[in-house]
Amino acid sequence: MTTAPSAPLADHHFPCDNCGADLRFDPKARQLTCDHCGNHQSLDGGPWGTPQIRELDFNNALRDNLPAVEMEETRVSKCPNCAAEVAFDAELHATECPFCATPVVTDTGSHRHIKPRGVLPFALDEETAREAMTDWLGGLWFAPGGLQEYARKGRKMQGIYVPYWTFDADTKSSYTGERGTIYYETRTVMRGERQQKVRVPKVRWRAARGRVARFFDDVLVLASRSLPKRFTDALEPWDLGGLEPYAPEFLAGFRAEGYAVALEDGFGEARQKMDQVIARDIRFDIGGDRQRIHQVQTDVRDVTFKHILLPVWLAAYKYRGETYRFVVNGSTGKVQGERPWSTIKIAFAILIGAIIAAGVGYGVAMNQ
């Protein structure tokens, strides 16, 4: 079925017109650059200035009825540790998983999957992303200083395009519920030996019903299972207004992970996000001081979607027997990762705290 999880997208190679070496997409210059001879190749007339990104029909995709041009087939290479599907150059037979630093050997399987429609190009280069990561580590209390230094001097970060789904939908919802209005009753209570009047809040409920409508645009759903969702969620918000129509030139020098969350499952998560917004709309529509929602019936129409790629700089370091993973939003520089702890720093802080507490206690005792 076309909506099944996919294999990784293959690496894209663009030979330099001058020396034949592989070009890479330079985030700062927003053009293809040859690290071998310094040649630059403009992308004017290529990805930029192309038509608006077109949405695809969700129901057609579920019926396996998308045009052949929207599909492609790629190889599968799965990490035995974190299950990430890792892309390889044709000449490589083994590499290291960029998600967890585990050695990976090529596989021979393949999957047919939906092509990406849009890509948010990298805006930060590797050096800038590394600085953001080390600054983030330096700002963490009780983080091992050695890990920060190791990260600063360690191997390069991996630039990876992470797969997402976006969904558009037109919704109309009818609801029943209750509207609560707060009022106050005066009561007499005993406070010690004296009587005192107090105002006690109460809620008066009355039935409510109505309809709300909302058009959802670009509800974003992560289509990867390789990284903890709490990491990628923390990289939001993404500037989806900066999406470009997909062109392989943007991927030159980077990797792109294939989606592991099926389209139908992705829409299920999108519906949960929509339902939360619809519930908020209903509460606003009910009004009053308090609201109760008893039943909601939502009609969802004109569902469209697109498969997009968002830029993430990724680092996976093995430090003193532990693996630490860090991700950097390749567009904004926002950082998230696994929180490292230094037992030495924690023990030292406890010792200093105990000394301070003892000093304070001694000073109080001397003044009595």
Written account of the structure:
The chain is built from six helices and 16 strands. The chain is of the alpha+beta class. The chain has one domain. The strands form four sheets. Strands 4, 9, 10, 11, 12, 13, 14, 15 and 16 form a nine-stranded mixed β-sheet that branches. β15 and β16 (335-337) form a beta hairpin. α2 (126-138) packs antiparallel against α3 (145-153).
How is the secondary structure organized here?
Layout: E1 23-26, E2 31-34, E3 40-41, E4 56-57, H1 58-62, E5 71-75, E6 94-96, E7 103-105, E8 110-114, E9 118-119, H2 126-138, H3 145-153, E10 158-191, E11 194-222, H4 229-234, E12 244-245, E13 255-256, H5 263-286, E14 290-319, E15 322-329, E16 335-337, H6 343-367
Helix pairs in contact: 2-3
The arrangement of helices and strands along the chain is: EEEEHEEEEEHHEEHEEHEEEH
Number of DSSP helical runs = 6
User: What class would the helix/strand composition place it in?
Assistant: alpha+beta
Output the radius of gyration: 28 Å
In short:
With 368 residues, the protein is α+β, with helices and mostly antiparallel strands.
Descriptive tags:
three-stranded antiparallel sheet; 6 helices; alpha+beta; 38% strand; 22% helix; nine-stranded mixed sheet; 368 residues
